[in-house]
UniProtKB/TrEMBL annotation:
This is Probable 26S proteasome regulatory subunit p27. Residues 138-162 have a biased composition (Low complexity). Transmembrane segments: none annotated. PANTHER family: 26S PROTEASOME NON-ATPASE REGULATORY SUBUNIT 9. Residues 174-229 form the PDZ domain. It comes from Aspergillus transmontanensis. Residues 26-60 form a coiled coil. The keyword Ligase does not apply. Belongs to the proteasome subunit p27 family. One of its GO terms (biological process) is proteasome regulatory particle assembly. Keywords: Chaperone, Coiled coil. One of its GO terms (cellular component) is cytoplasm.
Amino acid sequence: MGIHMDHNIHAPTVASGPTTTGGPDLDPAKLSMVELMQEKERIEEELSALSSVLTSVSNQMASTLENISNHLDLSQHGVNMNSSLTTFDDFPRADIDVAQIRTIRAKIIRLRYDHKEVMKYLEAGIHDHFSNLQRAQGDTSSVSNTNGSSGTQSNLTGNSSSDAVMLGPPFARVNSVAAASPADQAGLKPGDKIRSFGTINWINHERLSKVAESVQQNEGRTLIVKVLRQDGGDATELNLELVPRRDWGGRGLLGCHLVPL
């Protein structure tokens, strides 16, 4: 026999105090790019931990009841953000810690909002950095690759190393390149690691789906592809000009196969 709940039991409990280690006064607009990246990773780790707690809390409660009745199946008590906290007749479920789950849900909601804000400033910072790099390219020397295409290259030292940090880690690797394809003419080679593809980067590529979308939207237009190439023990940063097109005699608009990292 339980106590009937007149209020909305599913509404998240608002936890007291800050829900993140950054504190309530944390302003993403005042963080550096490196700090934004660190904050993003911290929030994602905490979200992952809280999501796991939702399941473990219900499992711990079920374990206690199992010791009493020996009739409970733990696998039936997993809880997520959408799980009902009441029985069919609107009483609180006895197999879970409803109060703790509501508190955790409230923390997850706040963390998701924090993550959205951090991502907004992080993406804006990266786009600004891309714009600065493109303006700076006018002062760099052009080099011709073996296929006659042009681009810029630099060893991964000095300012180039700083640029690489700002761009973030590579998000894709070139698995294969078809001969005489747009990718081949741009200078892409198997093993190249892609830091950015136009405006697509490690933050927003969405398992490369945004790369495919960008290619379709920019057929016949030049896309700047920033590549990290390993040559023995040396790493070289390349800015390649790639023009997606379908009249090259092969399949697709690029003629290369990319795999996510």
